[in-house]
Every structure is written in C-alpha cells, then in structure tokens.
Write a structure and sequence with these properties.
The chain has about 300 residues and is α/β, with parallel strands linked by helices. About 45% of the residues lie in helices and about 10% in strands. Helix 1 (about 25-35) runs parallel beside helix 2 and helix 2 packs parallel to helix 3 (about 85-95).
C-alpha cells in the first residue's frame, strides 16, 4: 500500500509582484498538478521556499492545498527544520489543519550526530499520529543521514518512508535492503528516479513535475507495468529537463519558477535572498522546454484562459 502514491510534487510557493503569497495562483497550481497525474503535493518544502515563509503564510498554504486537492489526492506538509521543538509545533499545527502527512528534512546548519537525528525524528513522529516521510538532502543540509539511521527510524510506526536525495546509490540500496517492504523509498532527484525504482524505490518527490507531470507519470507507470525498456527510454528523454531545473550556482526553486513563467504560468519571483534566473539562462531553459510535452496548465492558453 502506498499512502501517498508514486508521483508527488514538491510544490513552489507563488508570489505576487508585491512579494505577498498569491494564494489564488497557488490553488490553481495544485489543482493543475493533480489533474496532470500527481498523487500528492508537498507544501512548504525547500522548493516552496519554507525558510522565508511566516507561520500564517505556511498554515494558509496548507488550507489552500487541501481545498484544491479535495478528495483526489493528498497534502504533505514540510514541517521539519533544525529545531526539534519548532518542528514539533509546526507538525502539530499542520495536523490540526488537516494535512495528510508530514515531510521531515534532516536538520541543517547545526549538524547533529546520527544519534541526534534519531532522537529528533522520533520526537517529531511522536507528536502527531500522521505518517512522516524523512528527507535526506546532504547537498542542502551538509549532513547525511546514513542507511543505518534510516533503517532504525523505519521501525517507528508512523515513519513510513524517506525521500532520498543523496545521490548515493549504495546507500539507497542499503536502505531498501535493511528496511521492511512497506518502508517507501522515494527518489529526491528527478534524474535518479529510474535508478531508485530499479533498486526498490516506489517513485519520486519531483520538481520537474511542475511542467512535465504527464511525461514523468508515463515513465513511472511504464516501470510499474514491467516495461523497463520503455521506462528507461522515457527517463533518458527526461534527463535534460531534470538537469536544466538545477543549474550550477542557482538553487531550487529558481529555475523551476522560471520554467513555469516561460510556459505561461505566473509563478512569481523567488523571495530574497534568492534571485530570478538571468535572461541568458532563461533563454537556454526555454530551448530545453521546447523538447517536451508541457502539462496543459502551464501552457499560455491555459494560463490566460
């Protein structure tokens, strides 16, 4: 059983020209993502610029996502951080609002030892009955959660999986090998999805799905149906967009917001200290986007209808 399905988008937070959160656009985006084949959305993850959101903004985004999803999918709230008590508070509030699950990133900046990670995640998991997915992304946190730690935490009843963005396939294989079959390993990098699924992963928490949910869904479905050669071809076809959305020196979600804007969807600029993607890089990104069947909601006709 997959409580949150196989294709999950870590959704951006759209901002208006004033810098305020554009909740109407956000609702349209979430609806479009579900229409395009997503099973769930992660709200206020790194892609959603959670470090620069106020509590009021964060909680309203959860409400808007739940309204947009309805009974067609699930809302996972990114409530993790480097402060255990703060993560507990945010998780409880998200649970009270009605989200379906929680995403817990490894603590960044303070870099606790592995025993500290275990205590951190166990404490958060105990704070609500909601299912938790751990998020290991050493490139952003400067801290790797080891396979042994993931396996230990998998024994906590409501820690149901991990979003693995380490790019370390030996580690990912070891997590799959040492956890029960119902512990769900998601790729945290679009460029790794086929490989992670080949090792026993269940799907992806995606960024590229903001613009190519349909093609990403097709690749996952081909794999699940046993057509590994077709899935391999589709994965290789998607590699250029996966790479283009993570240009060197420009952290997520800068490029995916630019991609949405190029497609005709008003995602808005990132909040400082992030900057918009430079014009020359946007031109290069536009050429990559031309290679794909963009989802209907990000095409100009849909955006301005």
């Amino acid at each position: 059983m997959l409580p949150f399905g196989r294709l999950i988008t870590a959704v951006i937070t759209p901002f208006a020209e004033s810098g305020a959160v554009d909740y109407a656009v956000f609702g349209r985006l979430v609806e479009g993502l579900i229409d395009a084949g997503n099973d769930a959305v992660v709200v206020t993850g790194t892609t959603g610029e959670s470090p620069v959101l106020s509590d009021d903004e964060r909680f309203q985004l959860y409400r808007e996502a739940l309204a947009a999803v309805g009974d067609r999918g699930w809302v996972i709230a990114g409530t993790g951080g480097y402060d255990t008590s703060e993560s507990v508070r945010l998780s409880r509030q998200a649970a009270d609002i009605g989200v379906h699950g929680l995403l817990q990133v490894t603590p960044y900046y303070n870099k606790p030892p592995q025993a500290g990670l275990v205590q951190h995640f166990e404490t958060i998991a105990a704070a609500t009955p909601l299912p938790n997915i751990l998020y290991n992304v050493p490139a952003r946190t400067s801290l790797n959660m080891t396979a042994a730690t993931a396996a230990r935490l998998s024994q906590v009843d409501n820690i149901i999986g991990v979003k693995e963005a380490s790019g370390d396939f030996d580690q990912i294989a070891e997590i799959v090998r040492t956890t029960d079959d119902d512990f769900q390993v998601y790729s945290g990098n679009d460029s790794d999805t086929y490989l992670v699924m080949a090792l026993g992963g269940v799907g992806v928490v995606s960024v590229q799905s903001h613009v190519v949910s349909g093609e990403t869904r097709d690749m996952i479905d081909s794999f699940v149906e046993g057509d590994l050669e077709q899935a391999r071809r589709q994965h290789l076809h998607l590699l250029p967009i996966a790479r283009a959305l993570f240009p060197v020196g420009w952290p997520n979600p800068v490029a995916v917001k630019a991609a949405l804007a190029l497609g005709g969807f008003p995602a808005g600029a990132p909040r400082p200290p992030l900057l918009e993607l430079p014009d020359d890089m946007q031109a290069d990104l536009a050429q990559v986007l031309d290679m794909y069947r963009l989802d209907a909601f990000v095409q100009p006709a849909a955006a301005h209808a």
